[in-house]
Amino acid sequence: MSQPINEVTSDELLKDLEDQQRYKVIDVREDEEVAQGMIPGAKHIALQTVPERLGELSKDKEYVIVCRSGRRSHNACLFLDEQGYKVNNLKGGMLDWNGEVVF
């Protein structure tokens, strides 16, 4: 812990979701943003609720944290990393996501 946060590109995440499914995706955007679409299979946990919803996450799984541009998700990654979770930030966030979006 307390190491640089790993970043995953949208291409890497898309390939993982199609093939390995190694990652679980957590979307930390606000409700209004999520209403515009999410990465398929993503779980919505708004950034401000992350601390109180830690019980929904497993330290045995590896997560990719997503927001609009990657800044809020990076902050969530820092917090989750400090708590002992395996996290990666989606580089460029949903602005760079080039895969499918579900509504």
UniProtKB/TrEMBL annotation:
Residues 19-103 form the Rhodanese domain. This is Rhodanese-like domain-containing protein. It comes from the Bacteria. SUPFAM superfamilies: Rhodanese/Cell cycle control phosphatase. InterPro entries: GlpE_sulfurtransferase (IPR050229), Rhodanese-like_dom (IPR001763), Rhodanese-like_dom_sf (IPR036873). Transmembrane segments: none annotated.
